[in-house]
Amino acid sequence: MAGFLLFSILAVLSTVHAAPSCTCPCTCEEKAPSTQHQYTVQINEEGTIFNQVTDVDRENQIVVFHVPQHNIVTANQFMLDYNTGLAMTLFPDLNVCFLSHMPDDMLTIDKLEEGLSEMANPQARSTIIKRKKEETYERAAAQPVKDRSMLGDQMAQMCEKYPVYSTEVVPGASIEQDGGYPYA
C-alpha cells in the first residue's frame, strides 16, 4: 500500500546517518522563496527503480510526497500538514482523498528535510535497509467528510475537487515481519 511505502521511507529517513552508503543519484532544487525546497530521490523498491519528488514548504509547515505508480502502488500525493497534525492522501486516478492524523512518532519537519537533503545529495551515496516490515491497515468512513474546516488551506486546495474520507487505524490489524531487504 502507498502509505506503507511512504511511512517506510519516513521511518528510515531517521536512520540515514547510521547507514551512509546507497546508490541514490538524487537532486535538490530550491524554489522561490527559499523556505520551499523540492527533493528528487531515486528509490529502488523490490527491484523497481523510480524517482519520488518531495516538496517541503517550511514557511507553511507542509510536506508533499509525489509517489508515482510502481509495482502495486497507485500514483498518489501524500501531504503532511505540521500545523494541523493531519495527513492526506490524494489518489487522482481514483478521484478520492483519504484523511488521517499524522502518527505520533512522525519525524519533525526539520529531521525529515535533513534526511531528504542527505538522500538528495548526489555526492552522498547511502543504502537504507529496513529490517522490519510493518503494514498497518486503515478503514475509511462510509460517508465523505462534510465539514472540511479542520483542513489547512493547502490540504483543502489539494482535495477541493474530490470527496474526502476520514480513516482510522484498525486496532490489532497490523502485520510486522522481519524484512532485511533494502530500501534505497
TrEMBL record:
Keywords for the protein's UniProt record, in alphabetical order: Disulfide bond, Signal
Signal sequence coordinates: 1-18
Residue span(s) of domain BRICHOS: 70-167
Pfam families: BRICHOS
UniProt key word Glycoprotein: no
PANTHER family reported in the protein's UniProt record: GASTROKINE 1
Descriptive protein name: Uncharacterized protein LOC118416404
Source organism of this protein record: Branchiostoma floridae
